[in-house]
TrEMBL record:
<dbReference type="InterPro" id="IPR029052">
    <property type="entry name" value="Metallo-depent_PP-like"/>
</dbReference>
<keyword id="KW-0732">Signal</keyword>
<feature type="domain" description="5'-Nucleotidase C-terminal">
    <location>
        <begin position="327"/>
        <end position="481"/>
    </location>
</feature>
<keyword id="KW-0547">Nucleotide-binding</keyword>
<dbReference type="InterPro" id="IPR036907">
    <property type="entry name" value="5'-Nucleotdase_C_sf"/>
</dbReference>
<feature type="domain" description="Calcineurin-like phosphoesterase">
    <location>
        <begin position="5"/>
        <end position="238"/>
    </location>
</feature>
<dbReference type="Pfam" id="PF02872">
    <property type="entry name" value="5_nucleotid_C"/>
</dbReference>
<keyword id="KW-0378">Hydrolase</keyword>
<dbReference type="GO" id="GO:0000166">
    <property type="term" value="F:nucleotide binding"/>
</dbReference>
<dbReference type="InterPro" id="IPR008334">
    <property type="entry name" value="5'-Nucleotdase_C"/>
</dbReference>
<comment type="similarity">
    <text>Belongs to the 5'-nucleotidase family.</text>
</comment>
<dbReference type="InterPro" id="IPR006179">
    <property type="entry name" value="5_nucleotidase/apyrase"/>
</dbReference>
<dbReference type="GO" id="GO:0009166">
    <property type="term" value="P:nucleotide catabolic process"/>
</dbReference>
<dbReference type="InterPro" id="IPR004843">
    <property type="entry name" value="Calcineurin-like_PHP"/>
</dbReference>
<dbReference type="GO" id="GO:0030288">
    <property type="term" value="C:outer membrane-bounded periplasmic space"/>
</dbReference>
<dbReference type="Pfam" id="PF00149">
    <property type="entry name" value="Metallophos"/>
</dbReference>
<dbReference type="GO" id="GO:0016787">
    <property type="term" value="F:hydrolase activity"/>
</dbReference>
Length: 522
């Protein structure tokens, strides 16, 4: 009998230390250093007949303030990411969608001097661009041949600017697996699919959980690709572990809150006789001491970098304390971000989101720490020329964010929280006046929409600035797309805000009054 253990991390997003960087003394129940200690323990416990494969399933190099520091202030240190993976004896890596956020040159720098392969069967051109080593890898250990097929969500071109994807074409993960798995079945004893993507339907029941866009094809992999022995997933930041349709499957959340573990037991004929999947939670695991010591100087530098002052604010407070109220009525912080976007885009209509409920906004003395905690993505901006009908459709999508009961109590629609929390898919606008009547059915809630005090007509031409994720239709906004872009601002919003504060060292916060919400009879 042989036992094969598959350990996986996914969507770490550069959270090496157990902190969200909201303060120097912040401590959180997650972080790669906790996961590293747990993985090292599992590797050390392996017996003479045990096989352990460790896989990083993508979204490794972007997200945390430390990751932002490396990408923007110290790119010469980017190879740290591959060096850390090597210290952990990672056997293979998969690219996530956020690996492309800083462009291919930075991605290549992050992956320099690797001793493990990056796998990507559905990224055509990936090898030529120096970001993919092979579609799959066959590992032979203890007389067992284990094939690992790498896949990445094919939806990346919807989110990323073309300049970040030079020479690349993304194919369907499902179609790619249908091509490769039968071939690997003939060459290996065990076939593992590592997919930086999630589930478009409940993995057990098949009940749809989102539109079929090609972003997430996990359920189809489970049910339409015979021959898969284990499925490692990610991207959605969900915590999933179970045996679905006979296939042990994991998805270990984000920020290294857990490590995915799949255990396969093989008999003497190398047939799988037992299969299990579980998540190993990292909350109570002490960070790996040697790795923490190695990273301590970098962490201290990042903390000092985050505490650098950027500007001073007066007027209405830009600190966010009630996130639902900020989304319902607008907020001085959101108005400020829209003001920066409008200035950069040279338009007067702008849209931005309160990305999550950890956003704190800005204190009177703004630091880089506040900025990166409030705007955690490296988004750039686009200006699109759209119609009044497009704008109304986008606002109806925003209005669907809310639920409203018979007593007028307002909440957030489960469609924006389940199965994945997607609070970033609700936008607040500047430059228009608009009303949501939450008593009306979804799709009929925008009851007033004016621009320069005149009603917006369906065929009216309007220029709107937004981040490129939304501008490409991300978040289920098909009324926006690259064909409507008339201008690109290829500077990150974080840099635009920082530059704005440098040019306006004292800025006055203004509370907006252009969004009105009706939830009950007068």
């Amino acid at each position: 009998m042989r036992r094969l253990k598959l350990l996986s991390t996914s969507d770490v997003h550069g959270y090496l230390f157990p902190t969200n960087y909201s303060a120097r003394d912040d401590t959180q129940p997650y972080g790669w250093l906790r996961a590293a200690a747990l993985i090292q323990e599992q590797q050390a416990l392996a017996g003479p007949d045990d096989i352990v494969l460790t896989i990083d399933n993508g979204d490794w190099i972007e997200g945390s303030s430390l990751a932002s520091y490396l990408a923007t202030a110290a790119p010469q240190q980017a190879a740290l990411f591959s060096k850390l993976a090597q210290r952990l004896h990672v056997d293979a890596g998969i690219l996530g969608n956020h690996e492309f956020n800083y462009g291919l040159n930075y991605l290549r720098a992050c992956e320099e001097d690797r001793n493990y392969p990056l796998l990507g069967a559905n990224i055509d051109g990936g090898h030529a661009q120096g970001i993919i080593d092979a579609p799959y890898q066959i590992f032979e250990k203890r007389g067992v041949k284990i094939a690992v097929l790498g896949l990445t969500t094919a939806y990346i071109p919807v989110w990323e600017p073309a300049t970040h994807l030079t020479g690349l074409t993304f194919q369907s993960a499902l179609a790619t697996a249908q091509h490769w798995v039968p071939k690997l079945r003939q060459r290996a004893d065990v076939v593992v699919v590592a997919y930086h993507g999630g589930f478009e339907a409940d993995p057990a029941t098949g009940h749809p959980t989102e539109r079929l866009t090609g972003e997430n094809e996990g359920y189809q992999l489970l049910t339409q690709v015979p021959g898969i022995d284990a499925l490692i997933t990610g991207h959605q930041h969900r915590q999933i572990a179970g045996v679905y349709h006979g296939i042990p499957t994991t998805q270990p959340g984000d920020k290294a809150v857990a490590v995915g573990e799949i255990d396969l037991t093989l008999d003497d004929d190398l047939a799988i006789v037992d299969r299990q999947a579980r998540l190993l939670k990292t909350a109570t695991v002490a960070p790996a001491p040697a790795l923490a010591h190695q990273l301590a100087p970098l962490q201290a530098t990042v903390e000092d970098w985050l505490d650098q002052p950027l500007g001073h604010l007066t007027g209405a407070s830009l600190e966010v304390t009630d996130h639902l109220a900020a989304r319902l009525h607008g907020h001085a912080y959101l108005n400020f971000v829209n003001q920066v976007e409008a200035a950069a885009g040279q338009v007067d209509i702008a849209a931005t989101a309160l990305f999550n409920d950890d956003v704190q906004g800005f204190a009177p003395n703004v630091t880089r720490r506040q900025l990166l905690n409030s705007y955690p993505y490296p988004n750039t901006l686009v200006v699109e020329r759209i119609t009044g009908a497009d704008l109304k459709a986008a606002l109806e999508r925003c209005a669907s964010f809310f639920t409203c009961d018979d007593q007028g109590h307002i909440g957030v629609s489960p469609a924006f929280t389940t199965p994945k929390v997607e609070l970033y898919n609700y936008d607040v606008y500047r430059g228009i006046d608009y009303t949501f009547d939450l008593r009306q059915p979804v799709g009929q809630r925008v009851t007033r929409l004016t621009y320069h005090d005149a009603p917006v007509t369906a065929d009216q031409s309007l220029d709107v600035v937004m981040n490129q994720y939304r501008g490409n239709g991300g978040g289920d906004y098909p009324m926006f797309n690259a064909r409507k872009v008339i201008r690109e601002i290829n500077t990150s919003v974080v840099d635009l805000i920082q530059t704005y504060l440098e040019h306006h060292p004292t800025t006055t916060g203004v509370t907006p009054h252009n969004l009105h919400v009706i939830s009950q009879e007068p």
